[in-house]
TrEMBL record:
The lineage of its organism: Eukaryota, Metazoa, Chordata, Craniata, Vertebrata. It comes from Larimichthys crocea (Large yellow croaker). This is Uncharacterized protein.
Length: 125
């Protein structure tokens, strides 16, 4: 069910991108081009130093955020763990239902095969 939703979302995104790129609707395509232009302008203004400063601020803000919101964060983590556990058990049950049954061993055992005799080297003259 989840895979079907993901496939539908990807298909919708591809069709929407094709519609915008190949100018199905002129106004939407112009909006798309303006958005891309603005994103390039933002990319020029944002350089690596800005990203480093933002990363430092986030790194030092996370402990304070966790301290203030510890109860809520733990509830969310527990809920996510429960969902992951359900998905894991679902995948395992699907795997067990799809996996072929183990092969049964034959009732009569074949006779052991004798090891071949070692080959002698031919003498060269």
């Amino acid at each position: 069910m989840l895979v079907e939703e993901v496939v539908l979302m990807i298909a919708f995104a591809v069709t929407e991108f094709k519609r915008l790129l190949f100018i199905d609707n002129m106004i939407d395509s112009i909006k798309f081009v303006v958005l891309l232009y603005l994103l390039t302008y933002v990319g020029v203004q944002t350089n690596g130093l800005t990203l480093v400063i933002t990363a430092v601020i986030v790194i030092f803000s996370i402990p304070l955020l966790y301290k203030k919101q510890q109860v809520r964060i733990r509830k969310v983590v527990r809920a996510v763990k429960a969902i992951v556990k359900k998905i894991n058990s679902l995948c395992l049950s699907l795997y067990e239902s799809v996996r072929p049954p183990p092969a049964t061993e034959p009732t009569s055992k074949p006779a052991p095969v004798a090891a071949p005799a070692p080959k002698q080297k031919a003498k060269s003259k």
